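To: structure desk
From: M.T.
Subject: fold request, one chain
Message: Could you run this one when you get a chance? Sequence is below, nothing fancy, just the single chain.
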Amino acid sequence: MDTNNTIQLDSEKSEIEISIFGSCVSREMFNFLQNCKVKSYILQNPIHTMFFEEYDIDESKIKASSNFTRRMLLMDCHKSAVDLLLSEASKNCDYLVIDTADCRNDWWQLKSNSNVRICTSVSSNATIQGDPILCEEFTKGSAFSISDEEWSEYVDRFCNILKANFDERRIILNEFNFSRYYYKDNSLIEFECVSLYERQNQLTNKIASMIKERMPNINIISPYEEPVSMIDHHLGLSPLHYLDVVYLYQVEKLKRIIGI
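Reply: Done. Structure tokens follow.
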């Protein structure tokens, strides 16, 4: 269910400034919206890795698929996502948009120190001197292995940071659903891993509900009920890379919240 707890913004501003803590689920809709500028974007630094200890990595040895991926990996290793989230560039934005998509991601845990954990989604796209970054030092853990008590602790810490630094009325939780199908050659084709995506959908929805319980005054973009993915999406095929109609739906919901 949508909620709209709008605030009065400076009427003389030509652009509404946005900070994102989330994923492409939220970032993509701003490709369809004028008069908004994304000033800060934190991707693949989920709440189940961001509160762990720093991983001391030799930055000069990292090879990544893009400069952005490199920055996100380093942020996760150095545990500096909170620093960026609370930076002036982020805090001075008109709205903070958050989503829980990256909470589905598995994680790597340092064998020698269980308090060091980083997100697999970033690290799988980076190497150190030609070898997978986590081939020997780490073991892999599943997001599904995290207990409700642990998730509750991570959500508490995350929401406490937000409540201490942001007006809840300036926070927008973008809810979403995983696609069951993708569109190809005028046909709907079911994803092979649909059972996994259904479990991930349940997990990310559960965490979104925890956030809403702790911050009842935030704005909500309700999810598109049965999204369909796009095989030639510029980010690649994924149950979270949708047909344009889904982003346009999100945009209309967002416009009601921010008043444009």
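Reply (cont.): Residues 16-104+147-177+193-227+243-258 form a domain with the Rossmann fold fold (CATH 3.40.50). Let me know if you need anything else for the meeting.
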